[in-house]
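Practice problem: Protein O-mannosyl-transferase 1
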Amino acid sequence: MLGFLKEPVVVTAKINVNLVALTVMGLISRLWGLCYPRAVVFDEVYYGQFVSLYMKRIFFVDDSGPPFGHMLLALGGYLGGFDGNFLWNRIGAEYSMNVPVWSLRLLPALAGALCVPLAYQILVELHFSHCAALGAALLILLENSLITQSRFMLLESILIFFILLAVLSYLKFYNLQKHSAFSGSWWFWLLLTGVACSCAVGVKYMGLFTYMLLLAIAGLHFWHMIGDQNLSNVSLLCHFLARGLALIIIPMGLYLSFFYVHLALLYRSGPHDQIMTSAFQASLEGGLARITQGQPLEVAYGSQITLRNVLGKPMQCWLHSHTNTYPIRYENGRGSSHQQQVTCYPFKDVNNWWIVKDPGMQQLVVSNPPRPVRHGHIVQLVHGITTRYLNTHDVAAPLSPHSQEVSCYIDYNISMPAQNLWRVEIVNRESDTDVWKTILSEVRFVHMNTSAVLKASRLSGASLPEWGYRQLEVVGEKLSKGYHQSMVWNVEEHRYGKSQEQKEREVELHSPTQMDISKNLSFMAKFTELQWKILTLKNEDTEHKYSSSALDWITMDTNIAYWLHPTSGAQIHLLGNVATWASANGAALVYLCLSLWYLLRRRRKIYDIPEDAWQLWMSAGGVCGGGWAVNYLPFFLMEKTLFLYHYLPALTFQILLIPVVLQHLGDHLCRSVLLKSMFSALIVAWLSWVYFVYCTFSPVTYGQPALSLTELKALRWKDTWNILIRKQ
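Answer key — structure tokens:
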């Protein structure tokens, strides 16, 4: 029974020495001197803030993209024992000893290093020679810009890694299609394609470009499968479902999981809370949650409430009033009602409290049992401190003359009666009998006399003058089509009023609530809100010293200074390998011209190359040329501040096109032995040029050694490059 032990157990394995050597060289090029400089480098000042917030479990919103990339950077900090205590306030600041610099930069560096063997394997899976694949890998290895971007706490190298992994996985899956459909390896590579696509999108939304490209290629391949008479209808259905599951359903689920983990980690209140709804803020530990804990859920007649405007832009604000009145005449000569001012105030204040009153009763306390306010009910809103009623009438607002002034009514015994009845409309109701709920309900207040809607004015410069204490204007909007968020309010703080006397009520307004009702949001509700904020929140784009246009990238007419040593001439720049960039542009142009030539000739039934070579040429162009196009051309449509590093994913695909074009030229245009020999010699000379340029610019790629003034001036190959030269 144990006879097999008489012979030694032998394990044999095929090792691709090229692949191993390329991986080792990639690791060396990206990991060497990774802790240098031990100072904040360019956008590390941006991403480092989020890493610190992850370490402290403090909620934040980053409008640049989804959270997966940030979590990977934070993972590096966690593995290095980072406590989050560092002030990320300027580029060049020296890291304190508690900051694990090597650990924070490790994952981007590993991702950048692994792009080298991935490039090799992609060319192999496209059925090009190992020599061409080796050339592609060497070009990625010696690309200065990719090295620079992968050696710091930045996201582009991670994005490119997942993009290339997705492309490689799909190619491996496709090559297994004919002979090993539905095998274990077939499923593995198909599922890995979807996972890698989701990870790419989760790092930056730029990953969507490659994801869409792969979906288009997969759709084209499936279209060809439909025409295969050897496949039954059941088999086609299984192929369709498998692709739908792996390329759509699983990526969507994984994308949701990124946010689930993100929200699970960041459960504490932080500086970005104010842009979220009250319900979202109340779900976080501390902050608003400490104030709203224990509030009654249902708003009733007699409830004391604060009303927060849902829009939250340009800043969060609450419906507010104070004893001051509108001036009799404004600066432009228009008259006002001289009633008590109503504004939207961006700070918590006792004057933000209002009492929900039943128009048919005089009491300002909640009855027992409470009578809840429902959608469509008519209410009066009484200002808690001054006891005056919220009112609007046909008088022009101070800053928005086409809208009505909103005030708290003062009886001057003139012919201007109070108009203080408001209909409650719950915008996010499920039925017309819904109860008005604290935090959860988003409501509009429609004036019964004029049908105007209570609105926080969001006009440019809509802050009132000095007489209004620079607070935000509140108006009655006559044209109330749709549900613009500036017309929508939600109850943030809430208590059941118990004091009928005004002095006792003022004391009550300053006291905390006592009841205990939880208002936790579901994950999907929080995800939906956070995703919407990420997509719609826009920081004001300002012109940056190193911003550039998409046209500048192709010819590398721009660079970015990432770091400058405070005393020596050592510096780091995002600069590409000029030889590689020029060659990539040339390869793209040659590919385009040859493709058009072949297409015209084939239209005339003239076939210059065999059919299998034509299919290889087109498939490689679809992946490499298509990858370049989808990752580059969309930037011409974007209204955002652009930088050179946005071009790196497109550049990676364009570099892969170089060996494709070179092998094609060598196989099909150099037909004599002499021409092939000359062509090979030219390739060797060209690769030597690439290596020479890499070595020339490596001091500003790695930041060492420090260069002299003369050496720095010699590196300014283009007048548009901003090489930093200290004045002597």
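Discussion: The first helix runs from residue 17 to 31. Students who identified this feature from the tokens alone can consider the problem solved.
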